[in-house]
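REVIEWER CHECKLIST
Item 1: Sequence provided? yes
Item 2: Single chain? yes
Item 3: Sequence as submitted:
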Amino acid sequence: MPSVPPVTQPEHAVRRRTLRALAGWLALVGGGLPWPVWAARIVGVRVWPARDYTRVTIESDTALQATPRYVADPPRLAVDIRGAELLGSLQALVQRITPDDPYVARVRVGLFDPDTVRLVLDLKAPVRPEVFQLEPVAAYQHRLVLDLVPLQPVDPLEALIARHSAAEGPAPSAAAPAPSGDPIADWLSRREAMAAPAPAAPKAEARTPAPAARPAVERLIIVALDPGHGGEDPGAIGPGGTQEKDIVLAIARLLRDELDGTRVQGHTVRVFMTRDGDHFVPLHTRVHKARQVQADLFVSIHADAFFSPRPRGASVYALSERGASSAAARWIANKENGADAIGGLPLQVRDAHVQRALLDMSMTAQINDSLKLGEVLLQRLKRLGPLHKPRVEQAGFAVLRAPDIPSVLVETAFISNPEEERRLRDPGFQRELARTLAEGIRAYFERHPPLARARRT
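Item 4: Structure as written out by the authors:
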């Protein structure tokens, strides 16, 4: 009797395709037999590298069945995904990894068994992986998200002070003064005192001179700029395809260039960016970062949109504890607060953020200062073009909820208006807008000089 030849890989593939077609036919005619999870189709593979973390997103038409496993030595994340037909689509990830990715060294994709694809991310350093699924929302279908978060994240305050020290140059060495009550000034004092060389031992017959008085370290003015959206969340999209996240990042960078290093009331202004690249930052993280750097102001930059192309003009919003000042303000706040769902947060994180947002904390002083800042900005913006709203509007924006930082959200123009979309894309208009906002921020500090900082928790 002739021997039976072994079943080859192509025959395995034929059998799987046949079974999938049969399962689909049975689901249609039998009513209720579920489609196999490994019948999913990959519709997008994206990588968002950033210093904060690297995100890998796999989008599919149905939810993927994935099992992650992290190995610490050498650091790597392996994810087994059911469905061998996904192999070709997932191999596209290999080309998405760039050499400058801060956390991913390379990606390997292969068959673990006839029905399972194994995805392995070789890492440059240990991370805290967060793997979660997202339900369809907005323009997205099902998403499997792999977040690679560093075990030792960069301290934004330390990075900002180091940048300030590098810009100012070395200071004269002397004994560190007593604490001033300003954590940033104290940090600079300690840093300079530690870097000072030890004084030579005085001769016995010489009288030891009194130590020279060290000039006090100045109190910095820190402005947190928050370019809205980013990464998985493009924000509003204009009729010409312009994405809000790109426009507001360009404007924020120009505004940083206008403000950083300038002096107001004898103080140097330093600018901190909640994001300086194309990656997603959750709303509560934006607020937390601003508080970490002891910011004196928080300015969130956006580009408005509406269903109709007719609305136009700039607007400024502040927080409200008692409800929105208009139906439009409520609509805008709901739209902006939905960024976390679009950008992608694990369910437990979203729930925790909602609980924090519902805390009954007194923010009267913050809101009053925010309204003053908003009025100053509106006075400058109306010189640049028409305003959509002549006064500062208020609503429950999650990104404006820092209880101790005056915070406003600036809608620079309507990206849904074809004429304003063209202006927003114009580098000349972007620079003019940045200069206008910088003038407003400096004018605010001229009228309301920064106070001594209290320690924030």
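Item 5: Key structural point noted by reviewer: Residues 9-30 form the longest helix (22 residues).
Item 6: Recommendation: ____
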